[in-house]
Design a protein that fits this description.
Hsp_HslJ-like; Putative membrane protein; alpha+beta; DUF306_Meta_HslJ; about 260 residues; HslJ-like_sf; 3 helices
Length: about 260
């Protein structure tokens, strides 16, 4: 009888708990999530040369500095207009008319050659300014890169099992948001760090594991790691390939791993 009483008490307690939860869910107000405000936009910066100018989009305004920073034009940020391959802002005041067109097309800086993810055209009172915009590191991040060539040589093939075609080796690079670079060399794993500045791309000495592999794979690995540590800049080719350019002229070319053609 004692056990039956315990069971009954436990059943009543569970029912009471469920009722309490149901009431709480009924009367609790819905969670409020922040909503975008009109005229808001993710921060974006563009620059141009000859003449030098900079544009900041965000914080509720368009801010354009021209004539080496001597002339400042600030207008409230208008609603964005989506266009094919990008977006546009059209702003007006009693004194100025400002149009900003941002195209999602890689743009090499006309002075440094540093690629940026967007091509930008700014028209201020009929004066056209051309330049590049966005964060260059966004072109490196976003997923693994599958290496295609090292010092202009395609990756080596290894003999497979009988009646099977040779299998090409793989080298992978991943640039993360914390400034780390790592991946595999077909034989070993490696890790390094990178810094992107106005002067170019710097990669520290890669540290790799020490697993022995076939001789041709080891030679390829050594060439890759030596070239990687000598990288000074990068380019994005017209077909989307990443080209790392080293100080002695050697290059590493790679493509987003999901884009690689078998």
């Amino acid at each position: 009888m004692l056990s039956m009483a315990l069971v009954a008490a436990s059943t009543r307690l569970c029912a009471l708990t469920l009722l309490t939860v149901a009431v709480a869910l009924t009367i609790a107000p819905p969670l409020a999530f922040p909503q975008p405000t009109p005229g808001s936009a993710a921060p974006f910066k563009a620059v141009g040369n000859e003449p030098n100018w900079t544009l900041d989009v965000g914080a509720g305004r368009l801010l354009l500095l021209t004539d080496d920073g001597k002339t400042r034009t600030a207008l409230p940020l208008p609603p964005v207009t989506r266009i094919e391959g990008g977006r546009r802002y059209e702003a007006r005041s009693d004194a100025h008319t400002l149009s900003v067109t941002i195209l999602d097309r890689v743009c090499p800086d006309s002075m440094t050659g540093m690629p940026r993810p967007a091509t930008v055209e700014v028209t201020l009172d009929g004066r056209l300014l051309k330049g590049c915009g966005g964060d260059s590191t966004a072109l490196l991040r976003g997923g693994p890169w599958a290496v295609e060539t090292v010092r202009d040589r395609p990756l080596v093939f290894l003999d497979a099992k009988k009646n099977k075609p040779p299998v090409q080796t793989t080298i992978v690079m991943t640039f993360d948001s914390a400034g780390r670079l790592g991946g595999t060399t077909s034989c070993n794993t490696y890790t390094s760090s990178y810094v992107l500045s106005g002067e170019g791309l710097t990669i520290t000495m890669p540290i790799a594991s020490s697993r022995p592999c076939q001789s041709q794979v080891m030679v390829q690995e050594a060439a890759f790691l030596e070239t990687l540590r000598a990288v000074q800049r990068f380019e994005i080719a017209a077909d989307g390939a990443l080209v790392l350019v080293a100080s002695e002229g050697g290059t590493i070319t790679a493509r987003r791993q999901q884009e690689r053609v078998p």
